[in-house]
Design goal:
The complex is a heterodimer of chains A (75) and B (249). With 75 residues, chain A is mostly helical. Chain A is 88% helix and 0% strand. Chain A has one domain: F1FO ATP Synthase (Up-down Bundle). Chain B has 249 residues and is mostly helical. Chain B has one domain. In chain B, a hairpin with a 2-residue loop joins strand 1 and strand 2. The N and C termini of chain B lie far apart (53 Å). The chains are: A mainly alpha (75), B mainly alpha (249). The interface between A and B is medium-sized, with 12 and 15 residues.
Chain lengths: 75, 249
Amino acid sequence: MDPLAAKYIGAGIACIGMGGAGAGVGIIFGNYLAAALRNPSAAQGQFGNLIFGFAVTEALGIFSLLIALLLLFAL
Amino acid sequence: MADPIHQFEITKIATLGHIGGHEIAFTNSALYMAITVVGIWALLVGGSASRALVPGRMQSIAEMSYEFVANTIQSTAGKEGMKFFPLVFTLFMFILVANIIGLIPYTFTVTSHIIITAALALLVFLTVIVYGFYKNGLGFFRLFVPSGIPIYILPLIVFIEVLSFLSRPISHSVRLFANMLAGHITLKVFASFITLLGGLGIFGIFGATLPLILVVALTALELLVAFLQAYVFAILTCIYLNDAIHPGH
């Protein structure tokens, strides 16, 4: 196989990992919304935790994006 | 189709001199960083000039941004974290204003370059390490040893903790950079659909309204992302600083 083609296919495969982060972020926001509707008065206090969980989950998706960007532009 | 990457090109405006064969130039990136800093300066100095008991619009913005960052620090790093208020407030305002200026068409987005975000993230990372060792001495290593873990899985946990600590500057910087880059490329790609469809005649103009509506909606989304990423950067800075202030789990 042409090495350039293999590089692009590899970058595409690396981006699949972002789907997992998408599901994770969806679970976090969905559960936050479900809990906020059950107890709206406690929702505001947990906003920082929500954003922290979102950021930490998103970090794993970002690592796969990083691999894709490295394959495309750096290697 | 117009090149969606073109907006991130760094161009030279003026040459300041040469160091070791490398040109030191004043670029459009430096220009927009200067505009960002002048914008924040004008907002905060203008906002605190009158110091009225009942704040006006500018003073309200300045007070709200101060209280927002102060509350974020106190809820994540405690009262002791307030000594890092200048650092966190500077980072938050710089990223927020740079992101929002970048949303104006034909401007340059400073935070869409990894060298800028990596410099900011490494500043936070090194501050955490230096302050952690300054305040706690070797007790800073307690950060990597959570309490209440069975001894036989402790080496694995310590390895994972060290690895996650070292990967912090990477995820911290790439998160901001990737969000800005992807958002602006998406905007430009949808904007190029408008011109492509608009060139197809009368039916094309009807078709072009759909991407036009989408671009307006995406710009609103990007405004949210601009604020959210600045907030995420600030709150992660607070959480990392909290590790340096209270290293025990």
